[in-house]
Amino acid sequence: MPRVPDPPSLTPDHIARVHREIADAGPAPGVEQQTDADYGHWVAHILKDHAPGAPIQLFASGSLIWKPEIDHRAERPAVAQGWHRAFCLRVHRFRGTPDQPGLMMALDRGGQCRGVVLELPPEDPAVQLDRLFRREFTVKPINNIPRWLVVRTPDGPVKALGFVMNRASPYYAGRLPPEEVARTLARACGHWGTGAEYLLNTVTQLDARGIRDAGLWRLQALVAAEIERMPPGS
């Protein structure tokens, strides 16, 4: 009889303890936003290396798995060699505030990352990419750089669009100790919700696809323990 995987230590009850209703204050003063022309440039840049009429393959490793916000017609497992998912993007909005910055995941250099490839419909690729890019990056300099990756799938190598961390961004947090990441995720909350919820959603959706990321699994246990140590209302 197959072994039933252990459930995460982090639970919806933990999320409820740290969730707060926070209004979106908008971009911070002095932060330059991507413009319509900027998004148009990125769309053209990506499409120039894409075969017309072919569906775009999108590599998803985090929230794109459980909240893609873009139509896709197929999904299959994939591995991106030379990249790993990491909480290395510091955020002062969305899942954090200026007073309590949060962390979100991005693909950073080194190692490998197991995720999925989403096959987008072949119609209107420019429209699809514009919507996708407006979801993935908003400020200048760009945080998540769209680029073509070659990923491994059960059917062989596939050229897929991925988003990788711009290490020159002022929001790049570098490689942080898991304990520091856990303290941040246990406390940070923005108008999109908490960092703890973001982590739990990712772990749960990866696990449902048979992907057990050892680093994230340890991290969710650390976040659960951190929340349990926090005084009520903190």
UniProtKB/TrEMBL annotation:
It comes from the Bacteria. Pfam families: ChaC. This is glutathione-specific gamma-glutamylcyclotransferase. Gene3D superfamilies: Gamma-glutamyl cyclotransferase-like. Keywords: Lyase. It comes from Tabrizicola soli. Its EC number is 4.3.2.7. Signal peptide: none annotated. The keyword Aminoacyl-tRNA synthetase does not apply.
